[in-house]
Write a structure and sequence with these properties.
The protein is of the alpha/beta class. It folds into three domains: about 280 residues, FAD/NAD(P)-binding domain; about 110 residues, FAD/NAD(P)-binding domain, CATH 3.50.50; about 60 residues, no CATH class. It is about 35% helix and about 20% strand. It has a seven-stranded mixed beta sheet. A six-stranded mixed beta sheet has the order 3-2-1-7-16-15. A three-stranded antiparallel beta sheet has the order 4-5-6. Helix 2 crosses helix 15. The chain is globular and about 65 Å long.
């Protein structure tokens, strides 16, 4: 039996023991977190770490092991973190927490700038949640199920689960992560297409592909890179074609970059003005033997503030014209992954195309995909044996068909943000309903807040949200006689 298998078995046994002590204690506040990925697990751990018997937490997720989510439950050893170890702590007040854990559980020689396997990070998140659940006063219940609706009655909320159970809660946090993949709209594709894989992250997505001679990945972002790595790990030796509107692959990180600072507090309030400013700073950095990556990284502390200062029209302009370029420069891959991609491109084992699909035709032997070349405007054809949707999360929340999402919209408990990237939320994460009123029991965290924060999908940004929301939730119950809890948490974070 492999060590990873033992870890999973021990972990599940631990959860069976932990959930026995969880319960709805009389006079307690029950917080339900819908979503068992990093956001939900980190928030649960933060709340439980306060060690107060007045708080119980129930964590609801579809996966077998909480804390991992899609990204960190991968079985592919070649899937590395996109952020170095020194920036991956789950706790805003303890920036070296993950680094210490990695040196204890992964390797004593782990460097701060090392990019570790995502699978190991999933074990880290699971470990902090399990440790928090074993506290003296911890009350945590893990439910492997899917929430399908939320109702409010008599001052308390109720969550209906797909399995038939109902869960009462005082506060509910939506930690749903990214939306499922969107539909790339392939003209001519039938509803049942044996050679088309609608979700590159599906567990069976890459089954029986090893025998194929060529594969087309739709989308050239991080999902496409992950699928390409998985294909090679599965000994797929055929040609990998990658097709997207712009044909841009994620850039790679570089180690030991000199730090840079903006030295200004005001930024342009137009997308074009921001682009000019960044380009000027990149030229300045290069003149001093610097690197554009340091310029982009130096924007990170200001990104949410810049985004919120942009008028709605300029936010839309950014999404329409600059989003693709921002994504590939801001969300980079580990140097090892970048080197692998460069080698595959150089050897023509991977070929990247830029254009829009105009026709899809499938027969028993292959798929013929016609696209209009972005640069030349000419129609080109690709003949492949499999097409995999790697376009990433759905970008328009109006197209999301998740039962819980549709129920929340139907009941007018939530409303989309003006850009339809996710939910409209207040500064503290409370969702805003269809009437423009901030909820007093329903909150959102992580990618769902992309419309209001933009940068809200990476660990450094999410852990800050986790700390702020945990403090807000605990502070909101001061009238119940344990207001000192919020002050203790504030002290721990400073």
């Amino acid at each position: 039996m492999s060590s990873s298998t033992i870890d999973i078995i021990d972990y599940r046994v631990g959860w069976e023991m932990a959930t026995r002590i969880a319960g709805d204690k009389e006079g307690s506040c029950r917080i339900a977190i819908i979503g068992g990925g990093f956001s939900g697990a980190a928030l649960a751990a933060q709340l439980l770490s306060a060690g107060q018997p007045s708080v119980s937490v129930i964590l609801i997720g579809r996966d077998g092991c909480p804390g991992r989510g899609v990204a960190y439950s991968t079985r592919c050893e070649g899937h590395l973190l996109n952020v170095p170890a020194q920036n991956m702590s789950a706790f805003a007040h303890d920036r070296d927490h993950f680094l210490r854990w990695a040196r204890l559980h992964y390797g004593s020689d782990v460097r701060p700038d090392e990019f570790l396997p995502r699978r190991s990070y999933g074990q880290y998140v699971a470990s902090i949640l399990q440790k928090a659940s074993e506290g003296h006063n911890a009350a945590l219940e893990w439910r492997q199920d899917e929430a399908i609706s939320v109702n409010r009655a008599n001052g308390r909320a109720e969550i209906a689960l797909l399995g038939g159970d109902r869960i009462a809660a005082d506060k509910i946090i939506l930690a749903l992560g990214n939306f499922p993949p969107g539909d790339p709209k392939l003209p001519g594709r039938k509803e049942y297409s044996p050679r088309y894989v609608p979700n590159g992250w599906a567990e069976s997505a890459l089954d029986h592909i090893r025998e194929d001679k060529s594969v087309l990945l739709l989308g050239s972002g991080l999902t496409s890179v992950d699928v390409a790595i998985s294909l090679r790990e599965r000994k797929f030796e055929g040609k990998i074609h990658i097709l997207s509107r712009h044909g841009l692959l994620p850039q790679e990180h570089k180690r030991n970059l000199p730090r840079t600072a903006w030295g200004i507090n005001l930024f342009p309030c137009t997308a074009r003005g921001l682009l000019r400013l960044v380009r000027a700073r990149v030229r300045e950095a290069e003149e001093h033997h610097g690197d554009w990556r340091a310029v982009i990284d130096s924007l990170r502390p200001f990104t949410q503030r810049i985004w919120q200062s942009l008028p709605l029209q300029e936010q839309r302009r950014f999404l329409r014209h600059l989003r693709s370029y921002w994504d590939v420069h801001r969300h980079r891959v580990a140097p090892e992954i970048g080197a692998l991609l460069s080698s595959e491109l150089r050897d023509c084992r991977i070929e990247v195309h830029a254009g829009r699909v105009t026709k899809y035709h499938e027969n028993p032997e292959h798929v013929e995909v016609t696209y209009r070349d972005r640069k030349k405007g000419e129609s080109r054809k690709l003949h492949v044996h499999r097409v995999i949707n790697c376009t990433g999360p759905e970008l328009d929340c109006r197209r999301v068909t998740n039962p819980l999402w549709r129920d929340l919209i139907h009941q007018k408990l939530v409303r989309p943000d003006p850009l339809f990237l996710g939910l409209d939320t207040a500064q503290n994460g409370a969702v805003i309903d269809a009437h423009g009123i901030s909820s007093d029991f329903l909150y959102a965290i992580g990618p769902l807040r992309k419309g209001s924060l933009w940068e809200t999908i990476a660990v450094p940004e999410i852990r800050a949200q986790v700390s702020a929301l945990a403090l807000h939730l605990l502070s909101s119950f001061e009238q119940q006689g344990w207001g000192g809890l919020a002050r203790e948490l504030t002290t721990a974070q400073t």
